Amino acid sequence: MFHRAITRTPGIDFAQGITTSELGKPEYNLILKQHAAYVQTLRSLGLEVEVLPPLPGYPDAYFVEDVAIVTPEIAVITYPGAPARQGEQVAIVPALAAHLPIASIQPPGTIDGGDVLLINRQFYVGISDRTNEEGAQQFGALVARHGYTWMPVKVAAGLHLKSSVNYVGQNTVLITPEFYNHLALASYERILVDPAEAYASNTLWINDHLITPAGFPNTRQNITRLGMTIIELDMSEAQKMDGGLTCMSLRF
Ligand code: CIR
Fold this sequence. Notes:
Layout: E1 4-8, H1 28-44, E2 48-52, E3 68-70, E4 75-77, H2 88-97, E5 102-104, E6 116-119, E7 122-127, H3 133-144, E8 149-154, E9 165-167, E10 172-175, H4 177-180, E11 189-192, E12 204-206, E13 209-213, H5 217-223, E14 229-233, H6 236-240, E15 250-251
Parallel strand pairs: 1-2, 4-5, 7-8, 10-11, 13-14
Antiparallel strand pairs: 1-15, 3-4, 6-7, 9-10, 12-13
This protein binds citrulline.
């Protein structure tokens, strides 16, 4: 059960963030509107949401998921894998330190929160262009102290592990074809995401509600069988910046 979330408002420079999407130039007024709808949705699900101000010089900083991994016991501050994002992690510390003990990943370890998937007490840590073995090891050692287990998962497709695999409750993962037969994930019920809808694998499970990006009808249809309330949000502008629903908050 989540009680709180931390988010950050996109800055006026957000279009200068890192992207590979080729979906065109995002629009500032529209991302502000979509971000506000996201915050409002989390609040409607009972979360107390803190909205931090834009972080000048860090156009990707509203993707707060990447700068920390938060559990009920500890907040692990990451060392982001993209050089342009290194520094964002410092700015999240006060908001988290108000609630939890803090630990930090040290370079040369790098890790992005988007690579970290938690299912019950088991972490899966994507080894990707952003997260290296050293970062994963440091992270694993920190959370092992609190009784979590972890294992690495090679990310050969997509930006982060959670660009392709997300837990949606009921022992079920929403998963793209590239990861479908991965042994580490084969023990879960798996809902295969249509390759044309890979973006929708980044669906956010909050207190037995599912927030899914609008415009992916097959995925929506496939998750209805879980019997949870489904909320669709328009994510067009974040998608242009390679970001999804999980990326825009830290939940705990
Ligand atoms: C980046 O490339 O770092 C950002 N433009 C997108 C980060 C998305 N974050 C996430 O999936 N957790």
